[in-house]
Amino acid sequence: MNETGAGRAIRWSTVAAVAAVAVVAGWVSYVHAYDVVAAHGEHGILARLYPGTIDGLIYSASMVLLDAARRGVMPPPLARWLLTAGIGATLFANVLAGAAYGLLGAAVAAWPALALVGSYELLMWLVRHGVAAPSGSPGVVPSSVPTDAESAAIAALRATLAAGNPLSGRQLETRFGLTRAEATRVRQLVTAEANGHAPEEN
Q: Within this chain, do residues 81 and 157 fall inside the same structural domain, yes or no?
């Protein structure tokens, strides 16, 4: 079933809104971090580049987590630790930038950092679940999951079935970003194998 015009409008307007928030919040957060760095001993090009190490860390850690989710594998613990560290660093820098204006000033200054991290994670969620993927050519289902994700779901279901605790359809959808129809297809294929029936060749 092809994606409707309303579906495309919702998808792209959501991506555009999230991206716009990320750009504005990112710029404000960068300025706050730059002010803090410049006020504490760094100057010139070094002071301008320094805030980029924070956002770069958040981006890198998030990409590792996203890649692991799309491939259906466990992400390295270091990625989660570094993402947490990056979020903490950007919040600290923004709060420090507004601290001179009291508690309210610190809260106002912290908001862009929260908006940046929140919008970025929303965008990653869209990508992870295939919402941000471009629509396919006529007759092709645009929400189809990449082969590696479906293959990973099949492998995981085989393993959990052998262990006596097979993944449910909902778990397959959540962990591997499958649609309900794709999760059902995976379960049918693995169930057929378990019952001694060879899967049909496409």
A: no
Contacts of 142 (CB under 8 A, 6+ apart): 2, 3, 133, 134, 135, 136
Confidence of residue 128 (pLDDT cuts 50, 70, 90): low
Does residue 19 sit in the same domain as residue 103?
Answer: yes
The interaxial angle of helices 44-71 and 102-128, nearest 10 deg, is 40
State the distance between the two ends of the chain, measured CA to CA, in whole angstroms.
Answer: 19
Residue 33 above 60 pLDDT?
A: yes
Question: What local confidence, expressed as pLDDT, does residue 136 receive?
Answer: 43
- The set of residues, in sequence order, having a beta carbon less than 8 Å from that of 116 and lying 6+ positions away, is 22, 25, 26, 29, 55, 90
Neighbours of 79 (CB within 10 A): 18
**Residue 22: domain span:** 5-128
User: In sequence order, what are the residues at sequence separation of 6 or more whose Cβ sits closer than 8 angstroms to the Cβ of residue 146?
Assistant: 70
* pLDDT (0 to 100) of residue 197: 54
